[in-house]
Design a protein that fits this description.
InterPro entries: Phage_A118_VSP1 (IPR009319). GO terms for molecular function: structural molecule activity. It holds the Pfam family Phage_min_cap2. By secondary structure, the protein is of the alpha+beta class. It contains eleven helices and six strands. The chain has a domain of 205 residues. 60% of the residues lie in helices and 6% in strands. It has a four-stranded mixed beta sheet. It has a two-stranded antiparallel ribbon with strand order 1-2. Helix 1 runs antiparallel to helix 7 and helix 3 packs across helix 6. It is elongated, with a radius of gyration of 25 Å. The structure holds zinc ion.
C-alpha cells in the first residue's frame, strides 16, 4: 500500500462531525435564549439587555469544546500515524506497529498540538457568531409587524433557521471566502493527519533499514509534484550509488522535494519503499479518482444532513411552527439520501471508526 498525504483523508470526518455538532449546539444555545419569554411583552428589549448571559453561555460552551479537542486529538493522530506504518508494510509490521508509535510519541504529540492550535483559532469567531446571530434575530423579529403569539414564534424560528443554514463561520481566507467550522476542521485534519501518515511511513521504512523511496505517477498530477514523479528520493541524505538506482532517476532527498512542494495538502501522490535491484521502473498510476469522487459525494451529503440538523435545532425551541415542520421534513429526506448512498457504495470502510461525542450542553 502506498504512503501518501491522502492517507489522512479518512480521519477528517471525525473532526468534521465534532465541529458539526458544535455548530448545532451553539445555534440551539442561541435559540433557547431567544425562545425564553418570547410571548412576553417587551421581549426584544429584555433580550437585548440579556446579551451578557448569552455571552457567558457561549464562552462556557467554547471552553468545553477546546477541552474536548485537546483530549481527543492525540488518539486520532496516533491512528493516522499507525496507518502510515501499516501502509509502508514489511514483515512483522503488526508487531512493530505498537512499538514504533511508542517511540515516536513526541512526533504524534506535536502533530496533535499543531492541529489543536489550528482548529482552535476558530473559537473566537464562534463566540462572535453566537452574539451576532442573537442580535440580528432580535432586530429581524422586532422589525416585523407581528400580531399574536404564534406569529412571533414563527418569525423567530424562521430567522434562526435561516442563520443556521449559513452555518457557523470559523475562518475567512485570503480570498474572503467563509469557511464553516466543520468544513475548516475537516480540511485542517485532512492536512495534519496526512502529514502524520507520511511520517509513520517514513519511520517504518527507516526501521526496516531502507533509505530510498520512489514517488508515484499520479493521473492529473498537481504541477508542484510533476518534477518528482517516478524519481527516487533519499530519506536520510545518503546518496545511492549509480548501480543501486540503475534505470531510475535519483532526485535528491525527500526533505528537499517536500520543501519544493511535494506532498502539499490534498496531494494525490504517494511514495513506496525502493529496493535496489528489485523495484522496477515505470510505476503505474496509483491514485483512484473514482474513490475520491465517491468520497467527495459522501462528504457533500453529510454536510447537507449537518445543515438540516442545525436548522431543526434552531427552530425546535420555538415550539410547533411551520418552520420546524419544514426543517424536519427536509432532514428526514437528506438522511434517507445519505443512508441510501452509503448502502449502495458501502463507503463506511473508508472512514475512521473513531467518534468524539460532544458533551451535552
Ligand atoms: Zn501532488
Amino acid at each position: 500500500m502506498p504512503v501518501s498525504p491522502d492517507g489522512g483523508a479518512r480521519f477528517a470526518k471525525v473532526l468534521a462531525d465534532l465541529y458539526g455538532d458544535a455548530a448545532q449546539h451553539l445555534i440551539a444555545l442561541v435559540a433557547d435564549r431567544l425562545a425564553a419569554g418570547i410571548t412576553d411583552p417587551g421581549w426584544a428589549e429584555r433580550k437585548l439587555s440579556d446579551v451578557l448571559r448569552l455571552r457567558r453561555d457561549a464562552q462556557r460552551f467554547v471552553t468545553r469544546l477546546a477541552d474536548q479537542v485537546d483530549a481527543s486529538l492525540y488518539e486520532l493522530l496516533a491512528e493516522a500515524y499507525s496507518a502510515g506504518v501499516l501502509a509502508a508494510g514489511g514483515p512483522g509490521v503488526t508487531e512493530a506497529q505498537a512499538g514504533i508509535v511508542a517511540t515516536n510519541r513526541g512526533a504524534v504529540q506535536a502533530y496533535a498540538a499543531e492541529l489543536a492550535g489550528t482548529v482552535q483559532t476558530t473559537h473566537t469567531r464562534i463566540l462572535r457568531t453566537a452574539e451576532d446571530v442573537y442580535r440580528r434575530v432580535i432586530a429581524d423579529v422586532a422589525g416585523q409587524v407581528v400580531t399574536g403569539v404564534q406569529t412571533r414564534r414563527e418569525a423567530a424560528a424562521r430567522a434562526v433557521s435561516r442563520f443556521a443554514q449559513q452555518g457557523v463561520t470559523g475562518y475567512v481566507d485570503a480570498k474572503g471566502r467563509n469557511w464553516s467550522i466543520d468544513t475548516y476542521a475537516e480540511m485542517a485534519t485532512r492536512t495534519t493527519a496526512g502529514q502524520a501518515h507520511l511520517q509513520g511511513g517514513i519511520d517504518r521504512y527507516q526501521q526496516q533499514g531502507r533509505y530510498l523511496v520512489v514517488i508515484s505517477d499520479a493521473p492529473e498530477e498537481c504541477s508542484l509534484c510533476r518534477p518528482w514523479e517516478r524519481t527516487v528520493l533519499s530519506l536520510t541524505g545518503r546518496e545511492p550509488t549509480p548501480g543501486e538506482v540503475e534505470g531510475h532517476r535519483y532526485g535528491g532527498t525527500l526533505a528537499q522535494a517536500r520543501a519544493a512542494g511535494l506532498f502539499h495538502p490534498q496531494c494525490r501522490h504517494s511514495m513506496a519503499g525502493f529496493i535496489p535491484g528489485l523495484t522496477r521502473p515505470a510505476g503505474r498510476p496509483t491514485a483512484e479518482p473514482e474513490g475520491d469522487a465517491l468520497r467527495q459525494r459522501q462528504r457533500a451529503l453529510e454536510r447537507a444532513v449537518r445543515e438540516s440538523k442545525r436548522r431543526v435545532a434552531a427552530a425546535e425551541p420555538f415550539g410547533d411552527t411551520a418552520q420546524l415542520a419544514r426543517d424536519r421534513a427536509l432532514l428526514r429526506k437528506r438522511q434517507a439520501a445519505l443512508r441510501e448512498f452509503v448502502a449502495e457504495h458501502d463507503r463506511k470502510a473508508d472512514v475512521s471508526r473513531r467518534r468524539v461525542n460532544l458533551v451535552s450542553r
